[in-house]
Amino acid sequence: MPHRMPASPTRTTDEDSAIEWMVELRAGDITPDTHQAFQRWLDARPEHRQAWQRLGGALEYAFGDLPQVPRQAGLDAGTVEATLRQAEQHRHQRRRLLRNALILAGTGIGLGWLVPRTALQLGLAPDLLADLHTGTGERRRYTLPDGSLLTLDARSSVDLIFDATLRLVRLRQGQLIVSVQPGQTAPFIVETAQGQAQALGTRYLVRQESDLTRVDVLAHRVAVRLRDHEASQILEAGQGILMRAQTFERLPESGTQQPDAWLHGQFIAHDRPLSDVIDALRPYHRGLLRLSPQAAALRVTGNYSLDHPRATLTALAETLPLDIKTYANDWIIQIDTNLS
Predict the structure, then answer these.
(1) Class of domain 265-337
(2) Which of 3, 25, 28, 127 could join 157 via S-S bond, C-beta 3.0 to 4.6 A?
(3) pLDDT tens digits, residue range 289-302?
């Protein structure tokens, strides 16, 4: 069974505010007015300072041998960034500690929530618990122990189990493309929350979404199987499928629409909802992209750059009735329609 994160403790509105201030201070080009506003918030109530210190304490506890996080004054953005950067440099030494400290006793903020929801979604840190991972806007290619080639999209992570009887890649988040090394006796399997995709001498894409897995076969064949059911299907090159908890949904071959275009920093859409484009941009934007339901439903066709999300949003606004507002130096972008 794959490693599962423990349930996250409920966080307070003060903790939400502390996270928002971290985003604001992390954005760079901080003005004296921003510093003063932060200090006023910190001093307004004891609960504000406690929430800020708990956030810093979570980082300090998780990355135990790093320089101590200041407790008496508010954490500054440089300290947080340096802490996370050093954690990445010492990832392998840190993984055992992290796995033994997923819930921070008595702090009210769980590391299980802090790492995936805040640091990963906002681009503050990669998935430090994973064997292989990428950060915001980063694509990376790896050679696996058997010689297979694995490419991770931005904000993606996997764990590996390779031995004489099994070659297993557990996709924790994001998406990957794998070119499987032929001539091996051990089966090659990509495992997700919904099931498995086994190579039958092939090159294929697997994407983990919140409640489903998408598999696209780029060459040869793939066998897919649901996690809790015996149901399985065989996919040929050019075919795609969605795996949910109990069902398969075959994609029309026209619906694959070059799913591997992200390898070249592109998203190609043909009469797709705007929400698909924004979802593809999220791992490339350091912050939050907020999309209204009205804007999400707009249909788009085009070739869009993933590597330059702000320029892509500007181009979309030139052809669609969009109202785009930015906050915290582009860290938070709100996308809505301008239809009356």
Answers:
(1) alpha beta
(2) 127
(3) 999 999 999 999 99
**What is the DSSP secondary-structure string of 125-182?**
---TTSSEE--TT--EEEE-TTS-EEEE-TT-EEEEEESSS-EEEEEEEEEEEEEPPS
Contacts of residue 105, Cβ cutoff 8 Å, sequence gap at least 6 = none
What contacts 136, CB < 8 A, 6 or more positions away?
A: 123, 154, 155, 283, 284, 285, 286
DSSP string of 49-65? HHHHHHHHHHHHHHTTT
CA 63-191-171 angle, to 5 degrees, is: 35
Query: What's the token pair of residue 83?
Result: 């802490």
Closest CA to 268 of 218, 304, 312: 304
Give the list of residues 6+ apart from residue 212 with CB closer than 8 angstroms, or none. Answer: 194, 242, 243, 244
pTM: 0.68
272 has pLDDT over 80:
yes
Q: Range(s) for CATH 3.55.50.30 in the chain?
A: 265-337
Secondary-structure class of domain 133-255 per CATH: mainly beta
The edge-to-edge listing of strands for the beta sheet with 332-337 is: 288-291, 332-337, 322-327
Task: List, by residue range, all CATH 2.60.120.1440 domains of the chain.
Answer: 133-255
55 residue type, one letter:
L
